[in-house]
Amino acid sequence: MNSLLKRITINPEICHGKPVIRGLRYPVETMLELLSSGLSISEILADYEDLEHEDLLAVLEYAMRLSQVKRIEILPAA
Predict the structure, then answer these.
(1) N or C, where is the chain less crowded by C-beta within 10 Å?
(2) Strands (E), the chain
(3) What CATH number should be reported for the domain holding residue 23?
(4) Residues 6+ away with beta carbon under 8 Å from 32
């Protein structure tokens, strides 16, 4: 496993089991929203002092891995 991905943790008792950064209750989803809104890594790090540059790289690595699906199939409605 990529060493960056070790920074992303999943625990059912933290943030309802959503992927977070190092168990710090910062969901990957939230960091992706901040990045996609145009905030730079430096700006996010200034606002979240307990995060590290590698944490945000891990968020991007995690999102990239999730997007690497072979194909998506539409299931018929039940």
Answers:
(1) C
(2) 8-9, 20-21
(3) 1.10.10.10
(4) 59, 63
pLDDT at 71 over 90: no
The pLDDT score that the predictor gives to residue 1 is: 56
Tell if the pTM clears 0.70, that is, is over it: yes
Question: At which residue do the structure tokens 């990957």 appear?
Answer: 28
The residue ranges of DSSP E strands in 15-68, in sequence order, are 20-21
CA atoms of 77 and 36, how far apart (whole Å)? 32
Range of the domain at 10: 3-67
Yes or no: say if 61 and 4 are a contact pair by the CB < 8 Å rule: yes
